[in-house]
Design brief:
heterodimer; A: alpha/beta; Pyruvate Kinase, Chain: A, domain 1; elongated; B: alpha+beta; ATP Synthase, domain 1; 2 domains; five-stranded antiparallel sheet; 10 strands; globular
Amino acid sequence: MPSLDDLKKRIKSVKSTQKITKAMKMVAAAKLKKAQENAEKGRPYSEKLRNIILNLTKSISDETNAPKLLAGNGKDKVYLCVVITADRGLCGGFNSNICKLAKSHFKSILKEGKELKIITVGSKGHDQIKTEYSKYIIEKKSFKEKKQISFTEANEIGKKVIELYEQEQFDKCLIFYNNFKNVITQVPQAEQIIPTFIKKEDKVKNDTIPYEFEPDEDEILEDLLPKNVSVQIFKAFLENAASEQGSRMTAMDNATRNAGDLVDKLTINYNRSRQASITKELIEIISGAESL
Amino acid sequence: MEEKFKIEIISPDKGIFSGDIKEAVIPCFEGQATILKDHIPLITFLRPGLVEIENDKKFYVEDGTVEFSNNNLLILSASIQNIKHIEKEKINLMLKEAKEKISSNQISDKQKYILNYKIETLEQISL
């Protein structure tokens, strides 16, 4: 049985923890709003760019002659995985969910006897992945100092990926990130960015408008596809940023509630043992008086 | 009213400009083009230059993609900036960098072409 003093100390410490988690939740809520806005602002760009690419690809008559970034280089041997996580912890299952998904992909890639290369973005993911897959990691990036990730950073990674592709260091590229559905739900996602993945039904859906191309389709595609890679990565960043804050908010909300429950329980305990000690003292006094 | 068409300028971070306009001049890769209403559907990309809207608003671009269809002009560019909002020091810095790059020998003809336009445009707006 802990003494009254111990209980008092514990209640105090849990209360102060609760204050911290509450503050973190509030901060995350404020940041979430901003991140959500950013994610929404970024959406039209990537969507429209995708539309243009769709329109372009429909006009390509000879698919075998299409640029490598679009059609792939015909090989399927080396995979490059870009795992995008946060730089900070205390956000529930956010980082581990991405890593879990990425690891299951790694496993199946290795099982099929294919080569694996990993780029990690964000220090938390790197920490989790390096325990098992450290020999596959070719590069780690972290934007810890940056307050807000802008297109410049995404472009940096995009350029790096393209450079590797042009040196034929890999055949396929996947990115892993959390898709922001709503504040409570974030879905970890794997997306293939090289070669650009276009669903069949997307191809049929749009009516073809006879476009005029200047210079010609191939040259436009060559200019556009590398940009698309950067934009896809940037989109993943934005979704991730919103997801991180959402995830942190829920986690901290839970923590605050748990702390509250704990305080209640401890308070009951404290009151009980206080009452018990008072009763004990009374009994001692009464029985002392009786014996006189 | 009938002469107007929609324009949308978007960068990855946010929408830059949208509205109904009569005329836009864009620096296409193969030369400047003026877009008026009922232009035929067009997809092209940009070289460094100025996007001018009705001689009123001017934007500096380094690269970008343009689509025109159904009287909607869409300009996607990561480097687009309103020239009113660029500081002079930054222009000079960019100018210096571009000049350094062009004097090195390791660049291709295409890069040279782009850099030439970049320098020309920057010199034009720094005046």
